[in-house]
Design goal:
182 residues; mainly alpha; AhpD-like; 2 domains; 10 helices
Length: 182
């Protein structure tokens, strides 16, 4: 049972409804998920979170499907069941191959593409212990051809996933039924 219940569209302020609508449209959901609706109690928090998600996850040079995979791996590592379910659904919605998702969930090291695998491993390490990142970790990404701007996106994705995990876990958010349909 959630500690903070989602705010329905009917009960939301107009500012919050606007966030819900933009979130659902840009994230390609039919309806806004519990993640944003739980934050609907504070239009300020919902807007700020959506701005962050839009800027880091939805935009940028790294394809969204890879960022979604980073989100799944970080959330699995941190034991955030809501975020694992949500971002696996996003991966499926974006057409990520089922075999690749199985590798992601079972053992990241079994991901066949070394660039994708190493980006995800870097993101997980960054989310777990950012002070432990070494020059060799960054050099590995550079050897795959990542530019500084792309490496910064991986670091930002790590931070975003941790932020989202805290919100989902602190509120005891329940996974949306729509995740099973995606």
């Amino acid at each position: 049972m959630p500690h903070i219940s989602p705010v329905s569209q009917d009960d939301a302020s107009q500012e919050t409804k606007d966030v819900y609508a933009d979130f659902a449209r840009r994230m390609l959901f039919a309806l806004p998920p519990n993640f944003i609706k739980t934050q609907g109690h504070s239009a300020t928090v919902a807007r700020a979170t959506w701005d962050l998600v839009r800027g880091v996850l939805v935009s940028g040079q790294i394809p969204r499907w890879i960022k979604e995979m980073m989100f799944v791996a970080i959330s699995k590592e941190r034991n955030c069941h809501y975020c694992v379910a949500a971002h696996l659904a996003c991966c499926r919605m974006l057409g990520v191959n089922l075999d690749l998702l199985n590798s992601l969930v079972r053992d990241i090291n079994s991901i066949p593409d070394p660039k994708t695998r190493d980006m995800i491993l870097f993101a997980v390490k960054c989310s777990r212990a950012p002070q432990s990142l070494t020059e060799a970790d960054y050099e590995m990404l550079r050897q795959h051809g990542l530019k500084q701007s792309e490496i910064m996106e991986v670091v930002a994705m790590s931070a975003l996933a941790v932020y989202a995990n805290i919100i989902a876990d602190a509120t005891a958010m329940e996974a949306d039924a729509l995740f099973d349909m995606l």
